[in-house]
Structure formats: C-alpha cells, structure tokens
Prior knowledge:
heterodimer, A: Rossmann fold, 2 domains, 9 helices, elongated, B: five-stranded antiparallel beta sheet, about 25% helix, globular
Amino acid sequence: MTELGRIIDLLARGEEFCLATVISSAAPEAPAGGKAIVFRDGSLEGTLGSESLDKALPAEALRALADKEQRAAELPGGVRVFLELPAHDAKLLICGAGHIAVPLARFARAAGFSVTVLDDRAEFASPARFPSCEVIARDFAPALREMPLGPAVYAVVITRGHEHDADCLAEILRKKTAYAGVIGSRRRGLVVLEALEKKGLPAARLKDIFTPIGLPIGAESPEEIALAIIAELVCVRRKGAAAARALRAVPEAGK
Amino acid sequence: MTPYEIFLKLAALNAAGIPAALATVTGTSGSTPRGAGAKMIVCADGTIYGSVGGGCGENRARSAALRSLLATRAPELLEISLDDDIGTKGGDVCGGKMWIFVEPFPPGGGSRG
Lengths: 255, 113
C-alpha cells in the first residue's frame, strides 16, 4: 500500500494519529517529503530515514496530539518536520432531513465539514436532496446506535417532532461528541430535556446540549437558521464550546 | 474540502495516472487567512482543489507546485510574507507570514518511474 493509501485507510477507520513529514533537512539520509506515522501509544510506522530521527519523533508527535495542534517541529540534525493531525476532521451529523437540513448540509460542505444526513422518511433522506453528503434513510435510534460517533462529530438534531429529537439525543449523548444541538423554541428545548431526564440521562450531560440551536442572529428562513447553526459550529470548532456559549449569552439589543 | 477529501482526491488523481502536487500550510505568524494544516492540490494543467488561503500567497504556492511537478520533481518549502502582497496597498490583506510545503505525488512526480 502506498503512504497515501495507508493514510486514507487510517482516516476511514477513524484512527487518531500524527503524520510527520520532513519539510526541510540538512541530513541527506532524511530528505524532504519523507513521512512517518505516530500513533497515540507512541508506536511508529514508517521511517524518516535514520534511527536517531525515528527515536526523537514520537515524543514530539505525542505532544502535538496532546495539544491538538498541528505544527512544525525541529528534530536533531537540522531536520524540520510538519506534525499533522489529519484525523481531526469535522463531521456534521444532521438528524432530520427537512427544510433546514438542505441549506445546512450545503453550507457545512462549503465550510469544510463532511456531512451525514439521517431521516426515517426515504423521500426526505434522498441523495438527490443532499449532494456530496452521506444520506441514510433508517429509523433514528438504531441507525445512531450503530454509527461511529466521537469527538470529531457535530450532531445537529432537527427532526420533525420533539419525540424524535429526544430519541436522537438519547443515542447521541451516550458518546462524547464535539457538539450536540437541538432545534426549537426555548419551550420545545425544555420539553426535550425533560424527556431525556426521564430516560435517565445524567443532568451534567444534558447541560452540553445547545438549545435553542444556533447563534442569536434573528434567523427566520430555513437558510438563515442554517447559517446561524453553521456559525455556531464554526465557533465551537475553532474556539471551543465555551466561546460559542458566550456568544449566545450576548444580551439582545433593542428588546 | 476536508483533509480526508484532499487525500482521497489525490489518490484518485494518482490512480488515474495524473501527477499532482500537494501544498500544505505548515506554519503561520501574525494574521493569515488559513492556519497550519490547510491544503491544496495542484495538477499539472493548473487545476486546483482546496485552498491555502487565496490571493497572492496561494498563487505563489500554485507556481511552486507546478515547478515541483514539471521541473524539479522535488518538494519545496515556501516562506510567504503577506505584507508585500499587492492587495495590502488597499489595506485589506491579513498581513502575516506563512510557510507552505509543496510536494509532488507520487513522490518524484511520477514521471521517472
């Protein structure tokens, strides 16, 4: 398998790793372009070209993984490597393929998210409505139970009713996601949270849910709501959930 | 495009026998349009996929990518200062510095076997 094939294979399996590439080198045995992979346990795959470099690399790579920061690093012998964390890829999961889902999927694709759309109604969950997205037409709960959710997943729950919303969130909150938000007025949000509490989900986890979903920009049309949601996702992705919550807390002027 | 999609595209191009160069932002200082890890594919005909930030910086990366594909067949590390972009005369360009690593895929550019 080529290096490229191996990288794709690892990403497709959701593995977390650091890809090191020599970007400048004073060492003839380690020319620029050379690559090696370091896993979370510190194990190394491939070689940068010399034993001393391969020995020095894992510690730097693990630091980059711990900091979640892609950066260049200096190795002994005048060798500079770029430490890349390609698994840190944002995936948007949209539960509910209605009016908002269409612009939401489109904006998300443009903003660099890979997108999965799930709905139990095949006429809504149709690939024609969601170009370059993964589209799944199945009942929510079983589909979500089998889905590999994780820290790179942003879950947006916008089904046609709060019962389905609660079903989806109950599955999503079982795993750690980068974001979980649910559509609806403050009231509908509270109804969903109550339903989840009755299902036995811990209150601490319920606090992680963003509801009403999206930044408060006065959105009304499906496109505007999608834009408010995407803005919130970008903020969580780039600055963290706390920063996104701070934006929601801005007092509404003129009210 | 996400990094995963960039890698997939690169593999698909290579499988179709089309050599391509990959440009990756490896570091920045000051204010720049894209952070480390941003990627762009450049094909020998000049077609690009993805972005390393647009503007003159991206144009320089594209030229370097074509050079690595068609002439040197070797990787290259670019240091790009966005202060001296023509766009800054209008006062509207980010104004930082970025380093972009450009490498041909398959390594060696694919034309030497």
